[in-house]
Amino acid sequence: MSYEAVVEQVKTLPEACLEDVSKYMTFLLYQYGLSKMNSLMENDDEFNLKMQKGYDDMLHGRTKPLKETFADIKRRFA
Questions:
Q1: Residues 61-78: pLDDT tens digits?
Q2: 76: which residues sit within 8 A by CB, 6+ positions away?
């Protein structure tokens, strides 16, 4: 279904229904946002493994100085 078709359907509704339509669209956008965020979430085991790797890297000197890190970020995104 196209955006135009949805707009045309909304145009046929009485104004009294527009509040409900707006609330439902807000709900759908909220659900969509949650589904996008869920793909970014990790379980406790994955988090602990990543934290342990970072800690081990720090203990064994496999890190980069803070100033150098920020310079790299600035160079990449500036």
A1: 999 888 999 999 999 998
A2: none
